[in-house]
Design a protein that fits this description.
alpha+beta; 14 strands
């Protein structure tokens, strides 16, 4: 018999026990993690689990009809997708319909309601100086509100959540309406403002001149260059922030460089109205925003903001100027979609380049607000035209048909393996079961981890993967058979066939994975589910073949049933047409002894 040669086609002695132990440990660990997480089934997409379909219509602002264009619509789609995915809601489909409609499909599941509220929220954020403020409507007492004449330190916990009232506010985001909170800048001084303050027009280049600090018993009213505008005075006097209709109209049509009136809530849940100066910092100056549980100060859930370099300079400039004024003109309002969510005071310039919005946030509200601030403002205003509940009945029928087709395909593959490979089919079928089990467990874990949701195209990708995995087994089995046809016994044949089969399997799987990666990158929506599943199962094919199929065949080659070439093993040398065993050619050796001089 030909002994394996040392060379590039020779394989080092294999240790199948180690490989099998490694993949067994991985299977046990992943399965344990699946049960420990409580997610024992994959998350389902909207076509399988049902969900909500929302139609949003772009509404132009006054005189800005041209703003509704393809560029802005595509930008809005991108921002909506990032907002929803930032909440962990995967498989949400966001796409344009016509020239001014956007369709959003959100699967039923965790955070889906929060996602619905966020997709159409404009999230335009501005930092504006406070010119005047007082309690509004039935809350008003004829005397200045604490924010006008009281101790500014009371503003450290300014706005509280009033969910019952906020739900009545039409079209506003939960993180805005339900999550009204105060803002405490991260570098804010704890002392209150003292001494004589300058007028806001002296402190801010483009800001209005507010009135002096109102006297006790007098209701604060705007005055000066901006507040003296008759229209603004009328709006401020007529504004009743306890009415949802007035709150919805407050600030409508105001540009960042204009003064405006706005509404907000204080820590007692009372509505206040404001006169605010032109915006000094806007949401585009925020580099990053995130929700943080502040346990050190007991502030609970807060939203931290880190400004860009330019934004940090503007924020330091505005806070430095406001610190020189008296209350309420040493306050700045954080205005989100024309509503004041916070109006902290400052007593010194905040130069750290960061700020913190604090208040009575819960985790969901803080994360929602941080999500909107991080992913930017929509370039257009959207109105919710329709909301439709999608049932999974049709998807369930399609899934059933797909699973039946997959089962038929699997049965045909197994029958082929049994007929053609006989005993080797045991190794192939076992490897298929291991690959299927790993795929199921990993898909179940990817749901809560990265938000992966199984949809119909993803199921198709998993069915296609059956053929890819079976192809790898066939390549290896045929290489082993080729070695047996050359006259080698099974154990050397298994080891010599592996290097060539391994190279072919890797090249084949690389091509499949590359196709899946390209498909995932260039497509959107459900097709990405197909590409993701195809790529995942291709990687698992490599793992299973290397750590399970090859080691298992090595062990089986040591069993008499396979090693003896039983006719039902699939490796019978006679049925394969094996050549007679090859033998080395040997030179005839001369017996040792003296050399004949004639021969020499």
């Amino acid at each position: 018999m030909v002994a394996p040669k040392k060379g590039k086609n020779a394989s080092a002695p294999s240790r199948p026990g180690r490989s099998l132990a490694l993949i067994l440990i991985a299977i046990v660990a992943l399965t344990g993690g699946m049960f420990a997480s409580g997610h024992t089934t994959p998350r389902l997409g909207i076509d399988l689990a049902g969900g909500t379909s929302i139609t949003l219509r772009a509404v132009p602002e006054a005189g800005q009809e041209s703003a509704i264009n393809k560029t802005n619509m595509d930008t809005a789609v991108d921002i909506m997708e990032r907002r929803v995915n930032g909440l962990g809601v995967s498989e949400a489909e966001v796409q344009t319909q016509g020239d001014r409609n956007i369709i959003v499909n959100i699967p039923k599941g965790t955070n889906s309601e929060e996602a619905r509220q966020q997709v159409g929220t404009t999230a335009k954020l501005y930092f504006r100086p406070v010119v005047a403020t007082e309690l509004s409507g039935a809350n008003a007492t004829g005397s200045p509100s604490p924010s006008a004449t009281g101790n500014p330190s009371d503003k450290a916990t300014d706005k509280a959540t009033d969910k019952a009232t906020d739900k009545a506010t039409d079209g506003q985001d939960k993180a805005t309406d339900e999550g009204g909170a105060s803002s405490t800048p991260s570098d804010s001084a704890s002392a209150s403002a003292t001494g004589q303050g300058r007028a806001a027009s002296d402190a801010l280049k483009a800001d209005p001149s507010p009135s002096a600090k109102p006297s006790d018993g007098a209701s604060p009213s705007p005055s000066g260059s901006a507040a003296g505008d008759a229209k603004l005075q009328q709006q401020y006097a007529a504004l009743d922030c306890t009415k949802a209709a007035d709150r919805a109209k407050a600030g409508d049509g105001s540009k960042p460089g204009d003064s405006m009136v706005a509404c907000g809530q204080n820590s007692q849940g009372q509505w206040q109205k404001y006169v605010l100066g032109p915006a000094s910092v806007d949401g585009t100056d925020i580099d990053k925003s995130e929700a943080v549980l502040n346990t050190q100060t007991g502030a609970g859930w807060t939203v931290t903001m880190k400004f860009t370099d330019n934004g940090g300079k503007k924020f330091a400039d505005i806070t430095g100027k406001l610190a020189k004024n008296q209350s309420p003109q040493n306050q700045f309002a954080i205005v989100l979609d024309n509503e004041v969510v916070s109006d902290p005071y400052v007593s010194q310039a905040l130069t750290g380049g960061s700020a913190e919005i604090s208040g009575n946030f819960d985790q969901e509200e803080a994360q929602g607000l941080a999500n909107m601030l991080s992913y930017g403002a929509l370039p257009l205003t959207f109105k919710e035209d329709s909301v439709t509940t999608v049932t999974a009945a049709l998807g369930g029928e399609q899934l059933k048909a797909g699973l039946i087709a997959g089962a038929i395909g699997l049965v045909l593959v197994v029958l082929y393996l049994l007929i053609y490979y006989r005993g080797l089919s045991f190794i192939a079928v076992t490897s298929l079961l291991v690959s299927a089990g790993l795929t199921y467990v990993i898909m179940s874990l990817l749901g809560p981890t990265i938000g992966f949701a199984l949809n119909l195209p993803a199921v198709c990708g998993a069915i296609v993967a059956i053929g890819i995995t079976a192809d790898s087994f066939i390549v290896y089995f045929e290489r082993v058979r080729d070695e047996i046809r050359e006259g080698r016994t099974l154990r050397p044949a298994v080891e010599r066939a592996w290097p060539r089969a391994r190279r072919t399997i890797l090249v084949s799987d690389f091509v499949s994975f590359l196709a899946a990666a390209v498909l995932f990158i260039v497509t959107v929506g459900k097709v990405q589910g197909f590409a993701f599943t195809l790529g995942l199962t291709t990687l698992l094919d490599v793992v299973v073949v290397f750590l399970f199929t090859k080691p298992l065949l090595t062990l089986m080659a040591r069993r008499k049933f396979f090693a003896s070439g039983h006719k039902w093993s699939g490796l019978d040398p006679k049925s394969l047409g094996a050549k007679p065993p090859l033998r080395r050619s040997r030179r005839t050796s001369r017996p040792a002894g003296p050399v004949d001089p004639k021969e020499a």
